[in-house]
User: Which sequence fits this backbone?
């Protein structure tokens, strides 16, 4: 049965978005939780068999790349392979198509926004379906790497035999400069930023909604669980993205 409190909040969120000129979404792992990709934080969020301090850290990757590749082969690839965009990804793509969303800034590395049809996606942390050779700079796709992984770990570059790495930003690395510049610009100029499924604790990405606030914009948060910006957000909806976003998009389509 529909929850009148939730309906009311979604109605208010639609009103705030409708009144805005420049609308930007900022998404995190929670938006893909209903696609079966685990988050780092929040209930049920931990990938318990592997330690993020190891598989997501550049210093550890340099020391022991096989740890990352085993994690990729055993945990990440199976999750990616079976994941499809959910109703939240679809709603954000529909909002962009109807001119009601200018861009998505995402911390996600799963490529599901693009698969759902979103076009202006600023990937702050790269994309885990893409790989780079650290020796010859070849760009290698997921299917090729998956084939290589069947017989070699770590997988060698198909061009030169050098070491491959995921095209993702690992802890201890800088964010891609050009993408970050575009994201900062989008955050500064947004009069509404819609945060979806982010704990807002991973820096520097989590500083982007703060930029929106500092430049006079408003922040709406749809997240299961608390975030450090709940107290300064114009509106906080503590509910699942795949439940809230389709209803929000439906109201805005009217
Ligand atoms: P996070 O894991 O820190 O936080 C996710 C938040 O989403 C939590 O507060 C959680 O309670 C909430 N949540 C869980 N299910 C939800 C749902 N159905 N609807 C709404 N909210 C839900 O994620 P983050 O803020 O994105 O930061 C984590 C870092 O991990 C990022 O840098 C990101 O690159 C990476 N990461 C990416 C993926 C992905 O690409 N899908 C998955 C895990 C982690």
Assistant:
């Amino acid at each position: 049965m529909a929850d009148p409190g939730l309906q009311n909040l979604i109605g208010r969120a639609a009103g705030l978005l409708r009144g805005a000129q420049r609308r930007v979404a900022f998404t995190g792992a929670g938006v893909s939780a209903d696609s079966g990709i685990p988050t780092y934080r929040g209930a049920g969020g931990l990938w318990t068999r592997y330690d993020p301090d190891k598989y997501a850290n550049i210093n550890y990757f340099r020391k022991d790349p096989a740890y990352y590749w085993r994690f990729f082969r055993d945990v990440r690839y199976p999750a990616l392979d079976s994941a499809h965009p959910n109703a939240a990804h679809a709603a954000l793509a529909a909002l962009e198509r109807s001119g009601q969303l200018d861009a998505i800034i995402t911390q996600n590395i799963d490529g599901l926004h693009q698969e759902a049809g979103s076009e202006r996606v600023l990937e702050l942390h790269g994309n885990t379906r893409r790989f780079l050779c650290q020796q010859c700079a070849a760009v290698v796709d997921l299917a090729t790497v998956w084939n290589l992984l069947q017989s070699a770990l770590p997988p060698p570059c198909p061009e030169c035999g050098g070491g491959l790495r995921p095209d993702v930003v690992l802890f201890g690395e800088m964010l891609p400069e050009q993408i970050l510049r575009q994201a900062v610009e989008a955050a500064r100029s947004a009069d509404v930023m819609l945060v979806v499924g982010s704990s807002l604790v991973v820096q520097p990405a989590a500083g982007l909604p703060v930029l929106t606030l500092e430049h006079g914009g408003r922040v709406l948060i749809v997240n299961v669980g608390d975030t450090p910006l709940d107290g300064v957000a114009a509106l906080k909806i503590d509910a699942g993205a795949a439940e809230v976003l389709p209803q929000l998009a439906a109201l805005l389509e009217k």
In short: Residues 65-82 form the longest helix (18 residues). The chain has a mean pLDDT of 94. The domain at 39-82+126-168 is CATH 3.30.1600.10 (SIR2/SIRT2 'Small Domain'). The two ends are 22 Å apart (CA to CA).
